[in-house]
Amino acid sequence: MTAQLIDGNALARTLRADVAQRTAALKTRGVTPGLAVVLVGEDPASHVYVRNKVKACEANGLHSVLEKYPAELSEAELLARVDALNNDPTVHGILVQLPLPAHIDAQKVIEAIAPEKDVDGFHVASAGALLTGAPGFWPCTPYGCMKMLESIGCDLRGKHAVVIGRSNNVGKPMALMLLAKNATVTICHSATADLGAMTRQADVIVAAVGKRNVLTADMVKPGAVVIDVGMNRNDEGKLCGDVDFAGVREVAGWITPVPGGVGPMTITMLLVNTLEAAERSAG
Ligand code: NAP
Question: How far is the CA of 165 from the centre of ligand 1 (A)?
Fold first, then answer.
């Protein structure tokens, strides 16, 4: 069997077209969805990420503000900027790009963002909302994975989903979202004794580890859906995921490629969350 591809670029285009349409509708009511992106320091990867986020906003009619600060910015100064953005009615979503310099307590800064503007979904109030099923913002990467599963008509009820990775931004929220859709969920991590024994039982596998070839063909049940969140470099320096794509695609039913899978969905869900924040504030 050769797996069908879940095309993240195509799905992202469809969802962004919907964002652009809803944004245009909101603008006729005098509200332009606005995202503020705050970047502290010179991390080159962070500069690329924020540039892409700002570009995606502009391409779909959202307003964006990019605030760049030197690495020496103090925690108090950053908290003051977040407070100002919390009180700015033209800003509906606030994203503080991580990682922050070591002298700044990142969690403290995230908790300073008003929950109704927490479009990254990292605030403890957003995490609590996801845990309890209350309205809130879902972290963009696992939210994008859920949209990918939805796009192929994957009914999760009664399915066994295995999530590899338990980070606060990907693995844990992913598991909660799958659980909310009535999957039976197993979470694996670096201390899992026999990863293959877990993944071989899975109808759906989400790999969010950050290591190449964590999932190989012998670890996958024929026909399973495989979502690869990982972003790594192979020996040639090319972007690759956590999954041995060439091997696993011969066993799985569906698989996401890297690049062109989860990556484009993450920014798309940031746009969706920002638009939703603006729609909520407009009533
Ligand atoms: P993270 O915070 O480093 O978490 C990695 C997780 O993998 C941890 O829970 C760790 O377990 C687990 N792990 C490590 N080695 C393992 C092994 N051999 N077997 C099973 N589990 C293992 O990373 P993250 O932020 O969740 O990101 C994961 C990957 O997704 C990275 O490659 C990242 O770049 C990528 N990512 C991509 C996007 C996107 O838009 N495409 C967005 C976010 C992240 P312990 O908890 O026991 O240490």
Answer: 5
